[in-house]
Amino acid sequence: MSAAGTLPAGGPATGNPTAAVPAPPIATPASVPRRAGAPATTPGSRPGPAAVRALRALRAVTQSPPGRLRLLAAVLTAALVALLVVSLLTTLARQRALATLDGDSGPSFVAAQQLHAELSGADATIARAFLAGGVEPPAQVTAYQEGLAAASGRIIDLALAGGPREPLSVLTAQLPVYTGLVERARANNRVGNVVGGAYLRQAAELMKTTILPAVDRLAAADARDIDRGYAAATRWYQPVLIAAVGALAAGVLLHIQLRLFRRTHRMFNPPLVAATALTLAATGLVLAAFGTGRARLIDSRDEAYRPMAVVAQARVLALRAWDDESLSLIARGNSDALDADARRTVERLGYDPAGHPTGTGVLAAATAGEGPDEQARDALVPGWEAYQVTAVEVRKLVSRVGGFQNAVRLALGDGTTTFTRFDDDAATAFDAGQRRFTGGLSSAAGAYDHLPAVTGALLGLAVLAGLAGVQARINDYRR
Amino acid sequence: MAAVRADGGRHPHGTPPARRDTRPGRQAATRPPGALVVAVLVLALALTAACGTVGNQLPQQALPLPDAATATAAAGTSTGTGTRTGGAPAPADCGDPRASLRPPAVLPAPGAMPAGSHLRAIADRGHLTVGVLADVPPFGYIDPLSGEFAGFDVEIARLIGRAIFGADDHVRFRAVTYAERIPVLLDGTVDLVVATMTTNCERRAKVDFSAVYYEETNRILVLAKSPYRSLADLGGRRVCAAAGTTSIEHVERADPRPVAVAVPTIGDCLVALQAGTVDGISTAEAVLSGLAAQDPRVAIVGPRFDSEPDAIAVSRDHPELTRFVNGVLERTLADGTWRGLARDWLTGIEPVIPVPRYRD
B44 contacts in A (CB within 8 Å)? Predict the structure, then answer.
């Protein structure tokens, strides 16, 4: 007790008598005389209006050891409430962002990708049916009609989900024009009018230059929303803020305990220890949940969303190349633009015109990604290559004397079989990725389940324990 | 600092816990602040790395194929340029554009082409490649029911193939658009172009032409119920023709001037007329009759105008091929084959039998 001993006179003289009498060991050290000096100078330098007087009154209250403890209790309560508020607000912000991802932008993105595949599939199918001659194979006409019906339903879903108006209105306005052109093409083809080919080409042109880009705009808007949703669900400052406020609250608790320990020489104040543990537990729990949610989002992005988007792209590219092949055959060589488009498309898939893989490209990227769906995606490369063998052979046959009819026969036979198999595989891989993606979003949201309630309970208990712990010491002064 | 150390020295064992606790704290506070700052920064960095904001942009490979606008624009420009240069008057006077190279006195027999000639090269190759139109009945089109090339031009090409090989099925057809007719000949894709091609001096600067095999006259096609009865009625109206043809040039030069609409194929013109986006189509009468056969609600109207000679285009590098083709044409005109073809394919049109002219 050298500290108390060095300043024997200062404490009792200026301090509160209640503090001095019952607990001599608490009779305060250096701080008390310093504060005694401060009010002495204040009235002289600043003439005191009401605010200053109130401040002086507050100081007077807090100068006493129990007053100071009360102040510390207030600070502790404020810190814990701040921690609770920050935890709840950030958790709610993340839950809201995840709800949007899981219920809105995620499904919309998936729907836009499926819409793209359905529309380009319908376009390619009717072109293939046209290639068969004046009487189209019923199965392909049915597939075309089913594709369009599915696409129409998808457009309704996207509109109900509040998709952007501009691309959706382009779709609803242009799809009837497209089907009208196709039906005119079919009617003319049926009676042997060559103008049918011109109608079909216009329909395909409308699909490629107006309708599908509108679907791409829809998907791009959803992709932007997903990007934003990810950022909103993983803001870096949220855990930093919680850690900081949690550290502050724990610091206040430690300060109080150290102070009491120094005064009372009691090692532990059980309620305060409990409050500290509860505070640390709550902070740790929130931080752990944030970390888990973030990790699950990253998993769902790397193992599901991105592979799924690449598979979707590979599928629409393949459909486009297949469509170009049909239209090129229908145009009978009058098709430099179509052939160039097919070359561009296949090149992006990752193959040169002779069918050799270039090592880069969308198909390679689709199978390169890791993840549980790797197997489904791995089937795409051999599937595509099987089709491509027929495509290269078709091009060879077309440039041969009398090879044209053989080319059409091959395209309608093996070409269609192999492509359909590839397309089915791509659809399967996409569906697997899509399920994993939505599952990942749900499980990321699951990391925050019950978090507000548990945090609230823990921190509420911490406030009660903290106040109880401090109050016990304040009561000591009243004895 | 010194005071603390002295203090610690004085109470090596008996120091109360409170004192012991305060000492390290004071020591830390008096350490250089740099270390603390660095520690805080490292902690902040670690925290940020572990909980940094996660973006989710689509990978490059998942973005849609960039719009083919560049490719389409390039194609559009080339067509447009062709039309525009076509609109200018012929740059060089080549004399009579109808006059071609005189055929040899005796045509080589089928299967016996003279050694070292381009004809021999074609015979050795096993096929003659010919550019024809794919959707312009009755000249060149693909029969939607059989899938085979058919038409007047196609039959002329088959006659030439038969004269070289002595058998059918040695002609390989390449469907061409109007605008492609000269390029495919220049780059060697085809040996001949038989595609209702008007011979004129401007084109002769790039390719050679055979003797005239068909005298084509232009008329206009309108909706049967429309008030338009001639090109003169269509001043300021939209009139369609295929890009890269002499027809579109005539539309551009007509007085009163219509709005010329150039599209890739003549079939697209019929699509536009049926959609009501153009008021008339101007091209060769026989082509118009092919369009009219596909739609009972349209009619060919007005006087014949702009009579133009159609000839077979051949590369300028192979004059012996041009002479051979002229020989085949002369024989075809003389032995009645031509008249038979005209009767079969150009129904309803009074054919003007062409008279070959040569410039030696």
Answer: 240
